[in-house]
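Fold this sequence, please.
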Amino acid sequence: MRNKKGFTLIELLVVISIIALLLSILMPSLQKAREQAKFVICKSNLHFYSLAGAMYLDDNNGAYPHPTYCIFSRESFETPYNKHYHFRYCRWHDAGITPDGPFWPYLAEKDVHVCPTFRAIAKRRGKNHPWHDAAPVPIPIEPQYSYSMNGFLSAGDEKEDLIALHKDLQMPRVTDVKHPSTMLFITEENIWTIGYPERLSDWPLNDTFFQPTKYGYGGDCIATFHKTTSRNLNKGVSNVLFVDGHVAEESAWERGPNFCYNSWNLCTQD
């Protein structure tokens, strides 16, 4: 009588079925763990921004940099070469230009400028960015930053529509902020708009100037892609850095079902 060697076909099929079942149970948990890890990194990035902001303010007598020109200087926007080859609304994914703004030295050489969740989404949905095809020269989707700064925190510039309309709300220095623990400093932002029927925002990430409007029309809105599914990216939450240095989750839907009250209330003292 010969000794039995190996598995029968039925035994192999049973083992494969068990392994497949275990994988189907474990994969969602593993995916959730990966997303949670990315979320923690995104939140940690903003803690670095908090430290950089504190150092910048200390070196500049408490005065904020201009949000538009904090990472890329005004000069870098205005040179003919950069205007043609480095379209300003696409700088968030343009690896061909070197940051040279006043805030950059406090952040340079730190890999904290792009949230890993944002990076993955940008790779998949970069072509949905409204200005993707507007640049004179095509710019590959290579995310360079995913955070933007509250447009009300600076002395302002009359060229900026938001500041021109709401000059009385500007906070040039950190001492002008009455409630630091509730005032948005830097936030994550989507690269797509959320239009009808929800009408949450009309402008996606296009620069480092975060421009909310009182009823969500025509303005920027905090991100909605964390702690949600890939099929429902409009319903998640954002990481937000506040002036006092703490980072918290915020929902763009928290204070109204149809309008982006949240960003306006987080960005102004109105």
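Strands lie at 147-150, 184-188, 209-210, 238-242, 247-250. The first helix runs from residue 9 to 59.
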